[in-house]
Amino acid sequence: LALPTGYVQACRALMIAASVLGLPAIFLLITVLPCIRMGHEPGAAKYRRSQLGGILIILLAMCGVVATIWFPVCAHRETTIMSFGYSLYTGWIGSALCLFGGCVIVCCSGDAQTFGENRFYYASGSSSPTHAKSAHV
C-alpha cells in the first residue's frame, strides 16, 4: 500500500482515540443502570455520569466519522482507489450508530432533580391483591 503516511497515521490515531474513549464511556454507562448502586449516592450523581458517558460516546463517534470519511477521500485523491472493502462500511455504520446512541443517551437522561426518584418495586404476596406496586423503598 503506497499511500502517504501522514493522513494514514492521523486516521489510525483517531481510531485508537475512539477505542480508548469507548472503555470509560461504557463503564460510566454501566454504573448508571438502575440495578447498580454505588453507596448512598444521590440521583444527580447518576445523572452526571450518564451525561458524561453519552458525551464520550458522541466524541467516540466523531473520531470514527472523521477517520472513516477522511481516509477514503484522501486515498482516492492520491491513488484513485475505488474499492475500499467492508471494514470501511462497518466503520461508517458503527460510527453512525454510536452517534445516534450517544445523542439518545444525552437527550433522554432527564433532569438531575428527578433522576431515579420514580422507582417502584413489585410487592411480595403480603400486600393487597389489587395493589401491584409499592412506593419507593
UniProtKB/TrEMBL annotation:
UniProt main location, coarse: other
Keyword Transferase assigned: no
Annotated membrane topology: Multi-pass membrane protein
Keyword Transmembrane belongs to the record: yes
GO molecular function: structural molecule activity
Localization: Cell junction, Tight junction; Cell membrane
Transmembrane segments: 12-32, 52-71, 91-110
A GO CC annotation given for this chain: bicellular tight junction
InterPro entries: Claudin, PMP22/EMP/MP20/Claudin
UniProtKB keywords: Cell junction, Cell membrane, Membrane, Tight junction, Transmembrane, Transmembrane helix
PANTHER family, sorted: CLAUDIN
Family the entry assigns: Belongs to the claudin family.
Protein name as catalogued: Claudin-11
Organism: Balearica regulorum gibbericeps
